[in-house]
Amino acid sequence: MKRSRRVKILATLGPASNDIKVIEELARAGADVFRINMSHASHELMRETVAKIRQVERTLRYPIGILVDLQGPKLRVGTFAEGSVMLGKGETFTLDASDLPGDKTRVYLPHPEILASVSVGDRLLLDDGKIELRVTATSPEAINTTVVYGGKLSNRKGVSLPDTMLTVGVLTEKDRADLKAALETEIDWVALSFVQRPEDMIEVRKLVQGRAGVLAKIEKPQAIDRLEEIIRLSDAIMIARGDLGVEMPLETVPGLQKRMIRMCRRLGKPVVVATQMLESMITSPVPTRAEVSDVSIAVFEGADAVMLSAESASGSYPVEAVVTMNKIAEAVEQDALYQGIIRAQATEPEATAADAISAATRQVAETLDLAAIVTYTSSGSTGIRASRERPSKPIIALSPKITTVRRLSIVWGLHCVQTEDAISLEDMVDRACSIAYVEGLARPGDRVAITAGVPLGTPGATNMLRIAFVGQDGAGGS
Predict the structure, then answer these.
(1) Range of 382's domain?
(2) Same domain, 471 and 368
(3) Is a pLDDT exceeding 80 seen at residue 457?
(4) Where's the Pyruvate kinase C-terminal domain (predicted)?
């Protein structure tokens, strides 16, 4: 298979799409990476889903990435004696350590870490921000608040803390068990929810030990405050606009999205835009015009990937949602303004041989109108560098490691192929030209640019650029 677009599509699997036939349909329609949400999946279901995806991968002979999304700390209030209460503006309300059923004046808060962390003046947002409380007094046993925005509060509604840095780590015991099971299943990416600080990433990286890419979900104001540090410690990030839009003013989210995409591109880290991209397609076969515009903006901005959540996991039209997202991406990338916008966002390469070679390769490929750029990449870093330049020419990423090939399926513009390591420079050129020909990205007589590290097989040591002709049989020649 060969995509006609550069941006990648993540599709979340769930009750509507867990069948192997639907997974194959989604992959054929355009899904490059599948997401398994551990908020709704058991270890057994996760393993079954991974096995189905790998079977589809073998059928299609096309690498597919798998991302396991850890639930993270789910903060919720307790229960009420009558199931719910109405809170009025200006009333007082207490969240405390008593597990008795709640009433109009108080409710159980089963999270001692919140009781230990909040300060007077902090906001507490309940039920996705529909209710806002302001802290007036704190103790180890209770938080006293005033209702700023009232409404109906029912059992086990979520609690968000936009002004509070929790003193505990981001990984729960459930997350640790889920992470262990996911790594044993040999998934490609693990997503960490509710990241607040760089230390959260360090903790997870120690546990993962390079067995999967670590993706930080940016959905807390505290993460925005230390954004660059978190991105540098991540292998990729996700702009999780749902919780971000609850804990921060909604009108600031589009600007933050642009800022994060550009920062990730500068730092050479893949970035995924997520949440409500085609939300109406959960129940409708067609999206709203605003949703089409939203997806288009992410593509114009140069995001590596766009993601579907409930649209593909539990909606009525999972395949149609992927088809629609694919069509939008293709239309944007063929727009006359697209290349100019992408080029205007380019950043200067780092002062390293590998970055300089990648920048030069893009310029050479476009100046000489080459058919494609072929990168040999063991660890994946060369492929990511080639992608960072956002060239107008196709990029073929070749690696002997299937783990690298699958992990790169989230990265903008990379057509990933597993192949044996080249044994010589001549073999490297022949192999690159032959694969470009077989994959339909170059024809006899075309030229391709080839980048690699010499000595061959040295991870992260890109230091060579070669231009080669594709021969009649697909073999290469200088």
Answers:
(1) 353-477
(2) yes
(3) no
(4) 355-467
